[in-house]
Amino acid sequence: SQQGEEDPQALSIQEGENATMNCSYKTSINNLQWYRQNSGRGLVHLILIRSNEREKHSGRLRVTLDTSKKSSSLLITASRAADTASYFCATDAVSNFGNEKLTFGTGTRLTIIP
Amino acid sequence: NAGVTQTPKFQVLKTGQSMTLQCAQDMNHEYMSWYRQDPGMGLRLIHYSVGAGITDQGEVPNGYNVSRSTTEDFPLRLLSAAPSQTSVYFCASSLDRPQDTQYFGPGTRLTVL
């Protein structure tokens, strides 16, 4: 089963509004990342937050992390049409052989209405 | 730099056929991985490699083989294609570890009839 799940699965908002999406994960992590995927393309890295951080900002993005609840949220402020995309959280874990791996959640499809 | 390249972009196979999806990167990245993306399932990790000669299984490894003989290349082999392997496949690489920024290829859209 997948490590992360995003909520909601889909979100539509008016341009200029803020968009919030959430990620819940199952096991302890060292870091959590957020990625964006435009339709039919590969994923692009947005931001990384470490397990000892509670909040991080990058431009119009704000990420929070609550390790006690095993959850993270991504806030996009003042949304633009170009923000229309799918957003995924990704967490790292250690395999049975001691190798680190990165697993993704199921994604939130964000649509910005002009 | 070309970044991460994947070939082919599209492929149609018949059930039982085998093929290799190619992935290459020119950034001297140690960590490489393969994901499949299906509607509503997000990205699921198939296999990954932490460096040349070292590979490990992800969440959905059955039906796929990988090897990493060089730092640059990480091919994914489908041994006997099944309709359940119809998906979009993405290769990704990062400098050293999974928490480093992942760079994704453009994807291969595979249909198995």
Report on this structure.
The complex is a heterodimer of chains A (114) and B (113). Chain A has 114 residues and is an all-beta fold. Helices cover 0% and strands 60% of the residues of chain A. Chain A has no helices and 11 strands. In chain A, strands 2, 4, 5, 9, 10 and 11 form a 6-stranded mixed beta sheet that branches. In chain A, a hairpin with a 4-residue loop joins strand 7 (61-66) and strand 8. Chain A is globular, with a radius of gyration of 14 Å. The model of chain A has no long low-confidence stretch (mean pLDDT 91). Chain B has 113 residues and is mostly beta strands. In chain B, 0% of the residues lie in helices and 51% in strands. In chain B, strands 2, 4, 5, 6, 9, 10 and 11 form a 7-stranded mixed beta sheet that branches. In chain B, strand 5 and strand 6 (54-57) form a beta hairpin. The relative contact order of chain B is 0.33. The mean pLDDT of chain B is 95. The A-B interface holds A 1-2, 4, 6, 9, 30-31, 33, 35, 40-45, 48, 88, 90, 92, 95, 97, 99-107 and B 4, 33, 35, 40-45, 48, 50, 54, 56-59, 90, 92, 97-99, 101-107.
Which features does this protein show?
heterodimer; A: mainly beta; six-stranded mixed β-sheet; 0% helix; B: mainly beta; seven-stranded mixed β-sheet; globular
General form of chain A: globular
- Quote the average pLDDT of chain A: 91
Question: Describe the biggest sheet of chain B?
Answer: 7 strands, mixed
Tally of individual helices of chain A: 0
**Whole-number average pLDDT of chain B?**
95
Count of beta strands of chain A: 11
The Rg value of chain A, from CA coordinates, equals 14 Å
Order of helices and strands of chain A: EEEEEEEEEEE
H/E element order of chain B: EEEEEEEEEEE
Shape of chain B: globular
Q: What's the oligomerization state?
A: heterodimer
Rounded to the nearest angstrom, the radius of gyration of chain B is 13 Å
Low-confidence stretches of chain B: none
Low-confidence runs of at least 5 consecutive residues of chain A: none
Q: Pairing-aware structural class of the strands and helices of chain B?
A: mainly beta
Q: How many individual β-strands of chain B?
A: 11
**What portion of residues of chain A belong to β-strands?**
over 45%
- Name the chain pair whose interface involves the most residues: A-B, 30 and 28 residues
Output the number of helix runs of chain B: 0
